[in-house]
Amino acid sequence: MKKYVNTVSKKRMITNSIKINDEYFNVGVLIKEDPLFIWNAIHTIGSRHSLDRTTYHILKSTILKINPELVKDVEKKKSEIEMMAYNKKTTQKLLEAIKNNEIDKPGCRFRSLTNLQN
Asked: For the chain, what is the HEC assignment?
């Protein structure tokens, strides 16, 4: 079995400890005893806490049993952020196409409104 030494990651695993309000807590113990505490610590604005995928999945499934509305709120915020990022990227591509006079040319996904026919 391969042992990883000196791995640096911001993601916390279930066996790691996490510092919240100047106190250290074991992530696995928090998930079992007080999952809302660690959930709120992770999902506050400006929080730098994060978990690895499997640990987050365990926490999320625990929270779904306790209060599914919290998970729905987080997923809604995540989808809004993803949509804003998509709109920003599309706007940047449109501005670049306008700048390079590529609108209405083959291979460009944007079309000019004046050339559209009803």
From this structure: CCCCCCCCCCCECCCCEEEECCEEEEHHHHHHHCHHHHHHHHCCCCCCCCECHHHHHHHHHHHHHHCHHHHHHHHHHHHHHHHHHHHHHHHHHHHHHHHCCCCCCCCCCCCCHHHCCC
